[in-house]
Amino acid sequence: MAVNKRKKLYKQLDEVVSKYIRLRDGYCVQCGNPERLTNGHIFSRRHLATRWDISKDGNCHCQCWGCNYKHTKDNYDYYKWYTDRFGKKKFEKLRDRYTQITKLNLTELEELLLGIKEQYQLLKSNKI
């Protein structure tokens, strides 16, 4: 039962983070395209330490479908965008966090979901 609850929380977190990032950025950070937007991850989603990192210099940024797909084959352009924007030190810090083994219990996942939902609602109300 806990496995299903965890999967459900992951899915809910992925959905709210994607909505937040697309609303926050509003266009592809790499090419400027405002259509077919996705939540791009500098580093893979498989590591929980940075999977739902919505800070401006964090792991999640808005990408159009084309740039996001390209990133799965070749990281260079996305990495270059990040380092040009935030600097090499921030990139290295983010990479260090990404490589940390992080385990979140159900309570921590629920709290994270609640916090990001609140930030999304706040962002949404400020955009209106």
SSE arrangement:
Layout: H1 2-25, E1 37-41, H2 48-51, E2 60-64, H3 65-73, H4 76-86, H5 88-98, H6 106-127
Antiparallel strand pairs: 1-2
Helix pairs in contact: 1-6, 4-5
Report on this model:
This protein has 128 residues and is mostly helical. The chain has 6 helices and 2 strands, in the order H-E-H-E-H-H-H-H. The chain has helices at 2-25, 48-51, 65-73, 76-86, 88-98, 106-127, and strands at 37-41, 60-64. It has a two-stranded antiparallel sheet with strand order 1-2. The chain starts with a helix and ends with a helix. The mean pLDDT is 95.
Tell me what portion of residues adopts beta-strand conformation: 5-15%
Number of strands: 2
Question: Going across the major beta sheet, what is the strand order?
Answer: 1-2
Poorly predicted residue ranges: none
Fraction of helical residues: 55-70%
Radius of gyration of CA atoms, rounded to a whole number = 15 Å
Task: Look at the helices and sheets and give the structural class.
Answer: mainly alpha
What best-fitting shape do the alpha-carbon axes yield? globular
Largest sheet: 2 strands, antiparallel
Number of helices: 6
User: How far apart, in Å, are the first and last alpha carbons?
Assistant: 39 Å
One letter per element, helices H and strands E, the order comes to HEHEHHHH
Q: Average pLDDT value?
A: 95
State the oligomer. Answer: single chain
